[in-house]
Design a protein that fits this description.
The complex is a heterodimer of chains A (about 450) and B (about 475). Chain A has nine helices and 18 strands. Chain A is of the alpha+beta class and about 450 residues long. In chain A, strands 3-2-1-4-5-6 form a six-stranded antiparallel β-sheet. Chain A has a five-stranded mixed β-barrel with strand order 8-13-14-16-18. In chain A, helix 3 runs parallel beside helix 4. Chain A is globular, with a radius of gyration of 23 Å. Chain A starts with a helix and ends with a strand. In chain A, about 60% of the residues are buried. The N and C termini of chain B lie far apart (about 55 Å). The chains are: A alpha+beta (about 450), B alpha+beta (about 475). Strand 2 of chain A pairs parallel with strand 3 of chain B, so a sheet runs across the interface.
Chain lengths: ~450, ~475
């Protein structure tokens, strides 16, 4: 496949020879497979093969980009892109692409995920595990998704690299009754660590506990967040430390570098590590991907940058470049010192929330938002689950909730599902005090 | 787009033991502009082109796609789709509702062809919007503008004899601004969408709308008062009417949700067989009717034929407050013993077509907006919204006002800061007692599917009046 890298480098050389100042090209050969199921049966099995070269080039601080899917006349496409740059507008704040030669660690992608022979077997393992927990009548649905990408990157500014990226995830939602459901996910970059039955068992366990729910009461509660729902919160905070989102005021962290934004027990980092669905060895500028602590013992230390935003903030890139703007890859909240059971014991009267969806903000800068818990919602009294609840909404503030974290479990889970916990994360059980819940009237 | 490869793929699929096969090709010429504070961040221009095969065999469905235009590749993806369909091993075999093949071509006209408008002009239009905002007398802390131009060609063939070619240009824009006054901020986003040419830009009146939003946000900061919580009358402007119609009528009436096929992602519906709500059940007052209509010319959700090759038509969802007709594709229709009403849409060649809305709106009534207000003793007029959401059974929803005013004795008073209605679908639609004459539409991107498929839609309607609902 070095032929592909040569062709990717050739695109960079061609664009430079035509007059581009800086050029990035990234070729991805992706094989994606998905099994969708509902009613405990497979609805559809899907395969996507995608061959694409993304090209970004700068000419006199004008940034343009394209995707090449048709490789019959690449030269014409590059010429057209440069012409577009010449009629485009200057961005005085464009800071260029990363410069230098870098060494990359070897990718640990799992070649077995190039094409699974019997992907539906994993689905049935999860469904059976859910049944075992909650009974044969359980109704479950979800997806199994696999990814295998060969990635070739070349930059006129020095970086050249090859990466392989693999992922496998299973998401299952099980219904024990019409309004009693549980959701489990299992996420990994490699098959050897992938245990679909864990997701099924979790979905089944929560669904069983969620039977016969009563309408919950509006109020202020101490709330234990399951790793899955807390993954959605980590995704919100992780995207808000992206420097571009700070620049456009879609962040509660504007002008807060160096300030205390969370209690001492909170340390958050972005880490596209080998275990992660987002595992990668370099970012889209060819900078080695790495761990970046952005909240250190409660203090906001850094935003996530590409080269251009780093220059605006007078700092260094953090290796989070996308082709246009920086992204978080995989958010981690450092483990705490309490067991999950100890967290529950700390709650005299509160709630245990397991999943959520439809998070929307009134104002990203202020952080006022609401989100709708789904699947198991439980009333906790004296450390024990007393009652399954339904029809509640978290209506609170993203910054103040971060500030009210009082307990973090030792146990953590790698979670991701359907854009609701996106980007993926390594997420513990977390206890947050005084969370506002509302309901329909 | 190489139609001979598409035809070859279908012929090869038909040579296997399939119950049904289709090949859908899509070529999309795409332009994307991103401007931050009036400065172009990036201009992205690309062509995405590929095709997919969907096969029904042994009661299972297999789907495979590629962007490599070659016969060998076509053969490979047919083989994959066929293998996957056979491997499904379903107890309940999937069938599609019967349809006749269609041979046709359809296109959407452009008064001013988007491809003939220079990149400089497109950029300049948005730079000028930002300049106008900067000088409108409101302190703007940040703006982010995005524009998308998609020229979409499709070619659909099926084993039932369908052969449909189409061309639709879709123009979209999203503008988001932050106003900072007196040490406080407020934010607003506006989406615009159109099926047609660059004439859309003038018709949208973007500058006026964004300046209006900026001034409203300033008023909310400087003059807005919170509302005293309690039961009161609420007038919803067309934007609020539209989002409520989309979220609490359009989505729960999608038959694939009702049947559970989206249970793990977008969720299910409060409507289900054996439950309290089904076709013929009342869900609201008789003062309103909600339709979904893909056939509105130049609407953002426009299509003449859906992605299963069926002719589009208006669907009456809640008719005078009664559940009337679900949104169907061929799979859901067969399961519920009816015919598809052409609600099957896909955003690209690499996505399965699933049940979707197009343009969902409340039909007009016979009153003026002023008449609606005149008859309110104490209430709130919520013209537009910021935060909103709804649970996954589509019953518990919340809308937070962006532009809103207190109504006292039939007159609009001061701005109300962030009034909230948080209620059920049943209570919301049962409280409607009057509907105004003038319908307005807003563009939106409706999310559903896994992987996510954001499809262009309109939401809309007239103003509607709700009696005695709880507002806080």
């Amino acid at each position: 496949m070095s032929d592909v890298l040569n062709k990717t480098e050739e695109i960079v050389r061609k664009a430079k020879s035509l007059g581009a100042d800086e050029v990035l090209a990234r070729t991805t050969f992706g094989r994606y497979r998905q099994v969708r199921f509902s009613g405990n049966q497979v609805d559809i099995t899907v395969a996507w093969n995608d061959y694409v070269t993304d090209v970004a080039l700068a000419w006199k601080k004008r940034l343009v980009a394209t995707q090449i899917h048709d490789f019959h006349d690449v030269d014409a496409g590059i010429k057209k892109l440069l012409e577009l740059a010449k009629v485009s507008k200057e961005n005085p704040l464009f800071g260029g692409f990363a410069k230098g030669k870098f060494k990359y660690v070897a990718s640990k992608a799992d070649e077995k995920l190039e094409d699974l022979e019997n992907p539906t077997d994993y689905v049935f393992e999860a469904v059976e595990a859910a049944r075992k927990e909650a009974g044969a009548e359980i109704d479950s649905g979800g997806i199994l998704f696999t990814k295998f990408e060969d990635v070739y990157l070349a930059s006129s500014e020095g970086p050249v690299g090859v990466d392989k990226r693999s992922a496998v995830e299973l998401s299952i939602r099980a219904f024990a009754q019409r309004e009693a459901s549980g959701h489990g996910v299992e996420c990994s970059s490699a098959l050897k660590d992938f245990k679909p039955e864990r997701a099924g068992a979790k979905a089944g366990e929560i669904a069983k506990m969620a039977k016969n729910p009563k309408a919950g009461d509006e109020g202020v509660y101490d709330v234990i967040f399951d790793p899955l729902i807390f993954g959605s919160s980590l995704a919100v905070w992780g995207s808000m430390v992206g420097a571009f989102n700070v620049l456009i005021q879609m962040s509660v962290f504007v002008d807060k570098i160096g300030q205390k934004v969370a209690p001492e027990i909170v340390t958050m980092r972005d880490n596209p590590g080998a275990y992660s669905l987002s595992s990668r060895v370099f970012d889209d500028e060819g900078v080695p991907a790495r761990e970046n602590v952005f909240i250190d013992h409660g203090v906001l230390k850094s935003y996530l940058h590409n080269t251009s935003t780093a220059k605006m903030f007078k700092t260094e890139t953090t290796g989070n470049a996308g082709l246009i703007a920086p992204n978080a890859w995989n958010i981690e909240l450092d483990a705490g010192d309490m067991g999950k059971d100890e967290l529950f014991e700390d709650v005299k009267k509160g709630l245990y929330l397991t999943n959520t969806w439809y998070t929307r903000f009134q104002n990203y800068t202020k952080g006022d938002f609401s989100t709708i818990p789904r699947d198991g919602i439980f009333l906790i009294e004296k450390g024990k689950i007393k009652q399954s609840l339904k029809d509640l909404r978290v209506s609170d503030n993203a910054l103040s909730m971060l500030g009210k974290i009082v307990g973090i479990s030792k146990e953590r889970q790698h979670v991701h599902w359907w854009g609701k916990a996106e980007p993926p994360s390594l997420s513990p059980y977390v206890l947050i005090k005084d969370v506002h819940l509302t309901k329909s009237k | 787009m190489e139609e001979d490869i598409v035809d070859y793929a279908l012929k090869y699929a038909e040579s296997k033991q399939v119950e049904y096969a289709e090949v859908r090709a899509q070529s999309q010429v795409q332009d994307r502009l991103v401007l931050r504070n009036g400065i172009l961040e990036a201009y992205v221009s690309a062509v995405d082109s590929g095709f997919c095969v969907r096969i029904l065999a042994n009661g299972g469905i297999g789907f495979a796609s590629t962007n490599k235009w070659a016969r060998e590749e076509a053969k490979d993806i047919v083989d994959l789709a066929f293998k996957y369909a056979k491997a499904a091993g379903r107890k309940d075999k999937i069938v599609f509702a019967k349809e006749k093949g269609v041979e046709t071509k359809w296109t959407v006209d452009q008064k001013r062809k988007a491809e003939n408008v220079s990149p400089e002009e497109k950029i300049t239009e948005f730079v000028e919007v930002n300049k106008s905002l900067a000088s409108c007398g409101v302190k703007i802390a940040a703006t982010i503008f995005q524009c998308s131009i998609d020229l979409i060609s499709k070619y659909f063939v099926s084993s039932e004899g369908s052969r449909i070619s189409s061309f639709v240009p879709k123009i979209g824009a999203f503008l988001f601004l932050t106003v900072a006054e007196q040490g406080k901020t407020e934010q607003a986003g506006e989406q615009f969408g159109y099926s047609g040419g660059w004439e859309a830009f003038k018709e949208w009146n973007i500058t006026d709308k964004m300046i209006h939003d900026a001034k409203i946000l300033k008023d909310v900061i400087t003059k807005g008062k919170t509302v005293k919580s309690g039961n009161m009358d609420l007038i919803c402007g067309s934007e609020v009417t539209g989002i409520a119609a989309h979220e609490s009528c359009g989505h729960p009436m999608e038959a694939d949700r009702i049947l559970g096929r989206e249970m793990s992602q977008a969720g299910r519906s409060f409507i289900y067989k054996g439950g309290p709500y089904w076709l013929g059940t009342r869900i609201g007052s008789d003062a309103f009717t909600i339709v979904d209509d893909p056939s509105l010319e130049h609407s953002y959700g426009y299509y003449a034929y859906d992605d299963e090759g069926l002719k589009a038509r208006r669907r009456f969802l809640y008719k005078n407050g009664v559940l009337n007709e679900f949104l169907h594709n061929r799979e859901s229709a067969a399961k519920l013993g009816t015919k598809s009403n052409a609600s099957s849409r896909s955003i690209n060649y690499d996505r399965e077509a699933i049940v979707r809305m197009a343009n969902t709106f409340v039909l007009p009534g016979d009153m003026t907006e002023e008449e609606l207000i005149e008859d309110v003793k104490s209430g709130v007029y919520m013209k537009s919204f910021t935060e909103w959401n709804i649970d996954d059974k589509r019953f518990n929803q919340r809308y937070v006002g962006r532009e809103a005013y207190l109504i006292e004795d039939g007159e609009l008073k001061h701005p109300v800061a962030r009034p909230v209605i948080e209620t059920t679908t049943l209570k919301f639609w049962s409280a409607v007692d009057a509907v105004s004459k003038k319908v307005n539409f807003d563009a939106a991107t409706c999310g559903k599917g896994d992987p996510a498929q954001g499809v262009p839609v309109y939401t809309g309607g007239p103003c509607i009046r709700l009696r005695e609902v709880y507002v806080k």
